[in-house]
Known about the structure:
The protein is α+β, with helices and mostly antiparallel strands. It has helices at residues 46-63, 84-94, and strands at residues 2-5, 20-23, 26-29, 71-78, 101-106, 116-123.
Amino acid sequence: MKDSVQTPHAPAAIGPYSQAVTFGNLVITSGQIPLTPAGDLVEGGIEAQTEQVMINLRAVLEAAGTDLARVVKTTVFLADMNEFAAMNAVYERHFPSPYPARSTVQVARLPRDVRVEIEVIAERH
Length: 125
C-alpha cells in the first residue's frame, strides 16, 4: 500500500505530489531543492544549497521512519557539472559508508533556478 509522507520540517509540495511516499519498506522522496521549510530560497553557492537539500531530505526521511544511513540510491541533478566536487564534499558528510548508489546528471534548468536537486530511495526501519 502506498502512503504519502508530509512534514512541516521540509518545504511543502508546490504541486500534485508528496514530499515522499512509502511503499512496503521503501521510502521514495520527491526531489528536494534548497528551500527552507518556510519556502525561502537559500542563497549562496552550491555548498549552501546542497546543505539545505540534505537538511530537507533528513527531515522527510525522519517523518517516514528512516534516516540517511538507510538510503540505498540517490539521484543528483546539477545546474552545472563544474560544481560536482563542491556538491560532493557536502554530500559526503551526510552519508555513512557504505555510500548509496548514485546517479548525477547536469540538467538545463531546475525549479527556482537553484543549483542542485536531490531525490533518494531508502529502506524504512
